[in-house]
Write a structure and sequence with these properties.
single chain, about 375 residues, alpha/beta, Rossmann fold, 2 domains, six-stranded parallel beta sheet, 16 strands, about 35% helix, signal, PnrA-like, ABC-Purine-Binding, Nucleoside-binding protein
Length: about 375
């Protein structure tokens, strides 16, 4: 769904050049004439990924009261159906369309090329056109901060991680989580179970249970439902949620969660279109832009730990430090990022290795 490959760095450069060449062709649309369509990979009621996108849609309307009611299409699988749904939205009058899954990319691009007067925004992809941009967030930043909480709260020094797909986006999150945990507790190790799925509540719950059985007393996650937090609540293990505040699924065991504010992009985009200044940018915003953040802390989290986390958060926002600044070693003991050096965006977007402390392999 949100897959990124090692071709991203080159694709980003090419897309920016191509996109910047013809933006003059896009016309301003008054806010009261903008008709927005959303294509969702899952159900709004998933309690996670799609739910937060829809919260972002609500945020967009709250901040643009003259914007007409938007249209959503849920449960659209990655593949040809994405093209069909996108085309249908255009024919129904949508002139700004958002697609929230990586696998929509080529299909949206095809439709965008056929409707140059319509604005398209694709979540997590790397291909652009004069009328199609991309958007995503630096989720690795709050992943690191949540890892600090997990590393300080564990008693067994074993953390678990319910992981969706073995792709750079997820690998980057696991690494950030591990680096954060080991920054406060160098003894921590992280075990990973792959789901090979983005949304499968049954698998998510069983994976969490298996990790707890393997000794993990704090579980992190990159999955779209609240099933893993439910399993942790039932088993008495702490959990770091994802996408939104998942304390509703684990009232006593939810420590915090890296969360999305998709509304920041949705609001920004319709304003850019209405002002006639939209460009096919490749948005990758972080804590500074309020695209990502942390859910409230469980009352069990010590105040001193919260202060430490907030201090590190301020450093990231100020640009004084970021997660993948060296020195960083991989799980084989090889120095991957030297002291006083930092990974480029391209390197982060194509990440295909685990940091020291992760006890798992990356499937081919």
């Amino acid at each position: 769904m949100k897959k990124r490959t090692v071709t991203v760095a080159l694709a980003l450069s090419l897309a920016v050049l191509v996109g910047g060449a013809a933006i003059a062709a896009m016309k301003r649309i008054p806010i009261h004439d903008i008709k927005v369509g959303f294509i969702y990979i899952g159900p709004v009621g998933d309690g996670g990924y799609t739910y937060m996108h829809d919260q972002g849609r609500t945020y967009m309307h709250e901040h643009n009261p003259d914007l007409p009611k938007s249209v959503i299409v849920e449960n659209v699988p990655e593949g040809p159906d994405a093209a069909r749904v996108t085309e249908t939205l255009v024919r129904r009058g949508a002139n700004v369309i958002f697609g929230n899954s990586f696998g929509y990319m080529d299909f949206m691009l095809d439709v965008a090329n056929r409707y140059p007067e319509v604005y398209f925004m694709h979540c997590s992809g790397y291909k652009t056109a004069p009328n199609m941009g991309t958007y995503f967030g630096r989720m690795y930043q709050p992943r690191y901060l949540s890892g600090m909480v997990a590393g300080a709260m564990t008693k067994s020094n074993v953390l678990g991680y319910v992981a969706a797909q073995p792709i750079p986006e997820v690998i980057r999150g696991i690494n950030a989580f591990t680096l954060g945990a080991r920054s406060v507790n160098p003894k921590v190790t992280v075990k990973v179970i792959w789901l090979f799925s983005w949304f499968d509540p049954g698998k998510e719950k069983e994976a969490a249970k298996a990790l707890i059985d393997a000794g993990a007393d704090v579980i992190g996650m990159h999955a779209d439902s609240g099933a893993a937090p439910q399993a942790c609540e039932e088993a008495g293990a702490y959990v770091i949620g994802y996408n939104n505040d998942m304390s509703q699924f684990a009232p006593t065991k939810h420590l915090t969660a890296p969360i999305w504010n998709w509304g920041a992009v949705y609001d920004y985009t319709v304003k850019q279109v209405s002002e006639g200044v939209w460009q096919p940018d490749q948005i990758w915003w972080g804590l500074k832009e309020n695209m990502v953040g942390l859910a409230p802390f469980n009352e069990a989290v010590p105040k001193s730990l919260i202060e430490t986390v907030e201090s590190r958060k301020k450093a990231i926002i100020a640009g004084e430090w970021d997660v993948f600044w060296g020195p960083i070693w991989d799980q084989k003991g090889e120095l991957k990022v030297k002291d006083n050096e930092k990974m480029t965006d391209g390197e982060m977007l194509g990440m295909d290795w685990f940091v020291e402390g992760v006890e798992a392999s990356i499937p081919k």
